[in-house]
Write a structure and sequence with these properties.
Number of strands: 8
Helix content: 40-55%
Number of helices: 7
Strand order of the largest sheet: 1-3-2-8-5-7-6-4
Strand content: 25-35%
Radius of gyration: 19 Å
Order of helices and strands: HEHEEHHEEHEEHHE
Distance between the termini: 49 Å
Largest sheet: 8 strands, antiparallel, barrel
């Protein structure tokens, strides 16, 4: 019975926060040897189709902490716009032609795909246009502890923002159940390094918070941590 209650709580949390929130789909690609440029050209063509159908697209290259992956990220303002966009894709001649051409000369392989919803319901897909560098930490929530993990995220958010980070938190949807993606955005690598230097300075609010949390029961486990930058 307890497991059922925890499951229902997680489902309620997801649906209550997701309907009006920005939706992001992430497709992680790895280029075939010698095909990196061809893959980016194909991504740019795909982005034009997505944009014509009402979505926003970011093409992001992984950096330290990951292999040479490129994320093709599609964003919609909310779940209603997301559903409309998915229906357009299913009936689009432009997509039929695109995949016919791409499959005739494949340039990479899809290694993962998943969707997520921004916990900040004020954010729109267009808020992510522009050039930036970022770090991502991926968390697996302990069963029934979504609210505790989110509370910890929000406490961290204010400290990180004081060091110059822009913080975006995503709850995993299809392809990423039980996951949260904690994303820090910066204008450039210097700003990212300056931010992390402040976090790790002796006596910082960040280190004090980490010290206190060592005595608390964990609400989640970090499973990945990597950096990257936008290419478009």
């Amino acid at each position: 019975m307890k497991n059922i209650k925890n499951y229902l709580l997680g489902m309620f949390l997801f649906f209550s926060t997701s309907f009006y929130a920005e939706v992001a789909e992430v497709y992680q690609w790895k280029a075939f040897p010698g095909k990196s440029q061809d893959m980016l050209v194909n991504m740019s063509k795909a982005a034009e189709i997505h944009k014509a159908q009402g979505a926003e697209v970011s093409i992001n290259a992984h950096n330290i902490g990951s292999t040479q992956l490129v994320d093709y990220v599609v964003r919609w303002d909310n779940s209603k716009a997301y559903a409309k966009g998915k229906d357009l894709q299913a009936s689009s001649e432009a997509w039929v032609q695109f995949w016919s051409e791409a499959n005739n000369n494949p340039s990479g392989e899809l290694v993962a795909s998943f969707a997520g919803n921004n916990l900040d319901q004020s954010k729109k897909a267009s808020d992510f246009n522009g050039s930036y560098v970022y770090s991502v930490s991926v968390w697996e929530v302990e069963t029934g502890k979504d609210m505790q993990l989110i509370q910890a995220f929000m406490e961290s958010k204010s400290i990180l923002e004081d060091t110059g980070a822009r913080v975006e938190i995503y709850q995993g949807n299809w392809g990423a159940p039980g996951q949260y993606h904690y994303v820090l955005l910066y204008d450039n690598w210097v700003d990212l390094e300056n931010s992390f230097a402040q976090l790790n300075a002796p006596g910082s609010a960040w280190l004090k918070m980490q010290q206190r949390r060592m005595n608390e029961a964990p609400s989640g486990k970090q499973t990945a941590f990597f950096t990257g930058s936008t290419l478009n």
